[in-house]
């Protein structure tokens, strides 16, 4: 017996961007994620 079934496949990509921590941005960097950005969960 042969069975055919359609299965949904989802491909997600994530891009991580990093920048150096400097004296100018230290408080923002140590404060965690930017709350102004929408969550992508």
From TrEMBL:
Database matches in Pfam families: DUF2382 (PF09557)
Biased composition (Basic and acidic residues): 9-21
Source organism of the structure: Streptomyces gottesmaniae
Chain positions covered by the region annotation Disordered: 1-41
Protein name: DUF2382 domain-containing protein
DUF2382 domain boundaries: 2-30
């Amino acid at each position: 017996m042969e069975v055919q079934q359609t299965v949904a496949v989802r491909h997600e990509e994530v891009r991580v961007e990093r920048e150096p921590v400097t004296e100018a941005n230290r408080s923002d960097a140590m404060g965690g994620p930017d709350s102004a950005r929408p969550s992508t969960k």
